[in-house]
# Entry
Amino acid sequence: MPNFENASLAEVETAVRCTPQRHHALRLRAIRALGTGLDRAAVAHFCDVSPATVQRWIRTFNQGGIDALLDKPRGGRPRVLSAGRFRAEVVPLLEAPSAAGEHHWTAVKLHGHLAAELQITLGYSTLLRHLHEHGWVLRIPRPWPLPPSDDLWHQQRTAFLPGFKSLLSDPLARVFFADEAGFEGDPRPRSTWARKGSHPHNLQTGKHIRLSAIGAVEPATGACSALLCDGCDSDVFQAFLDTLAAEHPPEPGRTFHLVLDNASWHKAKRLHWHHFTPVYLPPYSPDYNAIERLWLHLKSKWFAGFTARTEDALMSRLLEAFASLFASPALITAQCRVSGDDF
# Structure
């Protein structure tokens, strides 16, 4: 049994609450349980370990007390590339490939560059482990509009942010984000794992089938409205505004705002906005529109690898995707969560 001359039950309880190590806390809970009268088999079952492991924990505790149950650094040869050197020499290269004359990095290119230019000789799998440990993962870059080269664009974004942050923090304001997205019958190829030497295919019909969706989301509540169409103009957008206003009627004491870009049909003078106030984003600022992340989720989950032979098949897929979305407000909140601290 544990020898509580090394540490009392109260001290063990304090250590359970204070330790930053999950495994250390588990071992201390086992010692505490044994001290309250549970037998070794019950404690082993509770901790999902063998009775022999519990016995080893007891022996370690009896020999060295609470601190002896801490995870200790493992011995062995030190790493060729330390964490500090990785942050000092490799991370700047990852953040700015142009500094090394590269447009982008692959793991193979980075591995060769480290060996040739920095004389850092390490295995390819070791480099991958370093990348993952420091939070770097493989991503496919999103298409992004090229902003103007003058300073006006930066000035517009800077001037827009204070009012936008104030709006997001106003408890009486309901803020919706709206945008249009196109969905194609021929899916865009995406990265996939395949056996070396194989040639995976991405089926294409070549018919250029395409449908559009106009959507609006309220990240704070997970509310979502959408209208499917074969194109967008001011008449279609007015139909969407009518639908949005009907689904979210006015509330006493609250204001309704619709954040959207500067498409021509968003600014038609004959639009009836009902109880919504439009909030126009600065030019070239899709990163300020929370619904953009929802479009990425829909296309990744429902349309990656999906080929529609007819417009009806594409419409059915869209209806299924949006039905799933409407039934999951928590998913919308998670994908579109936004606050003033994000900018």
In short: Strands lie at 173-184, 210-218, 223-229, 255-260, 276-280.
